[in-house]
Predict the 3D structure of the following.
Amino acid sequence: MKITKAVIPSAGLGTRFLPVTKSMPKEMLPIIDKPVIHYVVEEAIESGIDDIIFVTGRNKRSIEDYFDESPELEMHLKDRHKDDLLKMVQDISSMVDIHYIRQKEPRGLGDAILTARKHISGDPFAVLLGDDIIVNGKPCTQQLIEIHEKYGRSAIAVEDVPQDKVSSYGIIKGTPLDGSLYSIEDIVEKPEPADAPSNIGAIGRYVFTPEIFDCIEKTTAGVGGEVQLTDGIRMLNDIQNVYAYRFTGRRYDTGDKLGYVKAIIDFAMRNEGMGEQVRKYLEEVLSPESTEIRSPRSGKCSCDE
Ligand code: UTP
């Protein structure tokens, strides 16, 4: 069955990105001139999705506003004959069908996905986390959809994570099949490095058969008191084989400060209008002669700690 629906959970508190996430969703942080979530929605559309369910929470109104029409702004641009900008703004509000569901409390990723159950109504569906950007010619979600089409089962995107970061991920134990594909034997949420079955971690892209909902529902709160998607996947794997796919592409975890900075630098360097100037600037500040930026510190931010 063709996958046309996607759930984008974006109700988390974004504590790794405080204080800015106190009043602004991390999904709306800008990568130059587009918010993170815009790239995620683009990936979904390029993968054949035409119906998106955002799971949001308090403080997430700006996501809805971003994808909504903006009559005053459109009128302003129209009156001033700024046709290119007008088209850009209108294109965003007509990108795709979007529905919003509120997760009453941020009780974990598993719980967030469960809130979308009624809308999914028994079909296989994709999940894209709202703070992971993945860049590749063939979108990561489409890569997973193809695995699902071939095997008729759920598929999750994985990548190698540094050993000291395994305790931040769902880590799989898998049997390699062909090339980048694994059959999952087990999956553990945020293990201690010494107990981790591997360093292959699940990242923010999934395709699920609808049976995942029953599994999440039976899951009790796990690590951190949250309903963990990982525990639901493990239960699903007991009744239907779940596949892990080492996706092709570059992933930016923009919910993490360093991941966000990497995304900004890479996107700025690739930007048509200013890429060359950015590259020149970086060469300048990184040259051995340049001491201006590196010392002494001219300002302090919370990432210095
Ligand atoms: P994260 O753990 O990365 O998000 O969850 P978080 O909790 O917002 O961030 P930190 O760790 O406190 O900085 C992965 C995804 O799941 C969503 C988040 O919005 C993010 O896209 N999520 C998480 C929910 O929608 N609801 C939740 O209860 C938890």
About this structure: Residues 258-294 form one domain.
